Amino acid sequence: MSSLFRKKSISQLIQQSNQKSLNRTLSALDLTMLGIGAIIGTGIFVLTGVVAAESAGPALVLSFILSGIACALAAFCYAEFASSVPISGSVYTYTYATLGEIFAFLIGWDLMLEYLLATAAVATGWSGYFQALLEGFGITLPAILTSAPGSGEGGMINLPAIIIIFLITALLSKGIKESTRVNNIMVFIKLAVIVAFIVSGIFYVKPENWTPFAPFGFEGIITGAATVFFAYIGFDAVATASEEVKRPQRDVPIGIIASLTVCTGLYIIVALILTGMVPYSQLNVSDPVTFALQFVGQNSLAGIISVGAITGITTVLLVMMYAQVRISFAMSRDGLLPKKLSKVHPTFKTPFQNTWMTGLIAALIAGFVDLTTLAHLVNMGTLAAFTLISIAVIALRRTHPDLERAFKVPFVPFLPAISALLCIYLMTSLPVITWISFVIWICIGLIIYFVYARHHSKLGK
């Protein structure tokens, strides 16, 4: 039994981070843009409408605030770990050092599902905006090629979603520096588009659209918060980049907190304007921001917003897939997954095979599974990860009180404990089918751990 809870020492992790198998090329600005690139996308351009119409109404703004608070508490925990242990793997690595191997494997397994499904879900949202853009030019793609089976739209495969995933995979396989350059350009474009929506939309806000403010009650606000949590998972991806940052102890906490702060503010403003422009009951569409502008007669600006939304969602795709590859890379390097997943390309200095394998699986999911199912499962995985990182910070403070930390979570253990409890509370509001799917995935992970990972673990050897 003791082997199940064997831990990596902090000195082992730091020594591993100094081996430089991956290029250290990223700055604090790159990380902040990486975080914004991941956070602002499907959450603001897709989920806002669905959640307002089905769960929260105009109180969507409270759902975003509640999720933002939960994420801020978790972000502090991520920042402390990233400033202490600058290595790929995010929560997986931190859990390995504090709670033991079996917990590390299971949260790594959970994160792999989270990022794979997030990539597929975001690609589905990208496909919806891309089709809306084409229709603006009078081009309509056949329904059979533009939606997944079972989505109610008569489709057999979501081909645009598959194509964009393969394009992102090709970019990521070439190198992180090239990927971040493209990401930074696209982030600037989507921020400009969001500001344009805010400036133009504020003149069409009708306060009467905010009444009733919470038509689904407090329960609807909580359900909305658990659903829009999907919109915040980007800062977790920043932590996975620790091993490719020039000054990780300083830059990673800056990237995590700065990106979360900027995005939370934008989410709140956009939610207020969106529900003020259009009655919440009419927002159950796949492109609510564009729809709102068309609703008030701003068709030409709606076309520009569609381009910005496509750009914004593309950056989310890039960061989600990047994070998935870095998680599986770290687990493979520890022997818990097959060796080929941690093999670094001699020229590009990237996990080349891992990247293409991830892209293929994500493309298949995006092509054949509908968006709603994916979003709920991603939220469950995210909340589970945030719960463990909060517990792990408390454990690290007790086991390594003298460890050098460039950033410290205030009020330990109270703040991390509140973070864990809030995440668990949000998890309880997710649908039963989501819990069943999550438990099945964890059971599959346990089987893989006992059949393969436990016997191939480098720490065990």
From TrEMBL:
InterPro entries: AA/rel_permease1. Coiled coil: none annotated. The keyword Membrane applies. It comes from the Bacteria. Its main location: membrane. Pfam families: AA_permease_2. It is a multi-pass membrane protein. The chain crosses the membrane at residues 28-53, 59-79, 91-109, 155-173, 185-204, 216-235, 256-280, 300-323, 352-371, 377-397, 409-427, 433-452. Keywords: Membrane, Transmembrane, Transmembrane helix, Transport. It is found in: Membrane. The keyword Transport applies. This is Amino acid permease. The lineage of its organism: Bacteria, Bacillati, Bacillota, Bacilli, Bacillales.
